[in-house]
Amino acid sequence: MSTTLENLNWRYATKKFDADKKISSQDLDTILKAIQLSPSSYGLQPYHILVITDEALRKELQPASWNQSQIVDASHLLVFAAKSEFGSELIDDYLQNVVDTRGVNPENLKGYGDFMKSKLLDLPNNIKTTWTSRQAYIAAQSAMLAAAELKIDTCPMEGFEPAKYDEILGLKDKGLTSVVVLTVGYRSEEDDTQNYPKVRKSNKELFTHI
């Protein structure tokens, strides 16, 4: 646990990346594996992650990202896109994956599938998007923790225009909407932010023991 706390204390929202330093394919795979293994409600993983290295595309996205330099300077740009639309296929595909992975009888999962459908399918679209977005944020946190363990820097970003991202990346046609951006790479020595003491609420302010 001490290592976890050390990693959390080490990481910060990197404001300036070293554009010349790139993440190895092995380390990238580790971060993506952490996203794949991230918990999600019912295990449904109602999101998709775009891993963007294309320089021209990132330059196109930068104006829709408040012109922040991290978008183009970081080694990789991860866009977490939540499902904005879904029907029974989301649950049916998950159940089929359970059958294929665990070798269980599909009939044994029918009750669970019906339960999930009763809780999710009749929700208004805006509530569905809120729910899927929350799941995407959990996955982004898993990526940040894995990166910190590798001493790879990240910056989670909400400072962008989702509608423009969706248009540029063609997400709407896929029933997806961008909800959070994660830039991943290595901090620049010129980023003074890395030297700032962390500012957090005290335990007394933050926690209530009942």
From TrEMBL:
It holds the Pfam family Nitroreductase. Keywords: Flavoprotein, FMN, NADP, Oxidoreductase. This is Nitroreductase. Residues 9-186 form the Nitroreductase domain. The keyword Cytoplasm does not apply. Belongs to the nitroreductase family. The keyword Disulfide bond does not apply. One of its GO terms (molecular function) is oxidoreductase activity. Its cofactor is FMN. It comes from the Bacteria.
